């Protein structure tokens, strides 16, 4: 019992195989394009570090913009000094910085300690706080202005502000 000879016969030439280089070349080209785009959009580290955060405008040039929030504020501990904030800049404990979960970066706010009435003007430059029940983290400088360093937390009111020149438009 055997197989017929024609079943085992090899063809004269192997069937041509489709080329597989085209998809690989396209994927490689796409990867290079993405890398070039990413490097073109990035700014050098020296440029990012050189731009200090803008100081909050004078309180007299601002007016409330609505969206008042009341809750608990805490302040950044010393271990955050120099760490990169969500906006890419290093944290400076002497700045007028606050962290807020969803106000846009650069928003100027007035933070008022509801226990003693002291207030300070600050700018949103970071995201947080990530502890339940807290609405803002403030820099140590703002914490001193609000007289909340000893307690570590305070019940505050946060009022977003707009510049008067913008309000006239």
Automatic annotation (TrEMBL):
Biological process according to GO: cell wall organization; peptidoglycan metabolic process
InterPro entries reported for this sequence: RlpA (IPR034718), RlpA-like_DPBB (IPR009009), RlpA-like_sf (IPR036908), RplA (IPR012997)
EC number(s) reported in the record: 4.2.2.-
Pfam families: DPBB_1 (PF03330)
Highest taxon of source: Bacteria
Gene Ontology molecular-function annotations: lytic endotransglycosylase activity
Entry keyword set: Cell wall biogenesis/degradation, Lipoprotein, Lyase
Enzyme category, top tier: lyase
Domain RlpA-like protein double-psi beta-barrel: 69-158
UniProt region (Disordered), positions on chain: 1-22
UniProt cross-references to NCBIfam families, sorted A to Z: rlpA (TIGR00413)
Function: Lytic transglycosylase with a strong preference for naked glycan strands that lack stem peptides.
Similarity-based family: Belongs to the RlpA family.
Name recorded for this polypeptide: Endolytic peptidoglycan transglycosylase RlpA
């Amino acid at each position: 019992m055997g197989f017929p000879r024609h079943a085992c016969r090899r063809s004269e030439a192997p069937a041509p195989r489709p080329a597989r280089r085209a998809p690989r070349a396209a994927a490689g080209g796409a990867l290079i394009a993405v890398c070039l785009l990413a490097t073109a959009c990035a700014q050098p580290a020296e440029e990012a570090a050189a731009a200090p955060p803008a100081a909050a405008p004078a309180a007299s040039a601002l007016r409330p913009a609505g969206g008042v929030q009341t809750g608990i504020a805490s302040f950044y501990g010393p271990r955050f000094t120099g760490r990169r904030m969500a906006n890419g800049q290093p944290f400076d404990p002497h700045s007028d910085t606050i962290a807020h979960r969803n106000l846009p970066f650069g928003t100027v706010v007035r933070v008022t300690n509801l226990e003693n009435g002291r207030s300070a003007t600050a700018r949103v430059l970071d995201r947080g706080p990530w502890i339940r029940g807290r609405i803002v983290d403030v820099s140590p400088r703002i914490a001193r202005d609000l007289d909340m360093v000893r307690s570590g937390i305070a019940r505050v009111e946060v009022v977003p502000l707009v510049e008067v020149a913008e309000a006239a438009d």
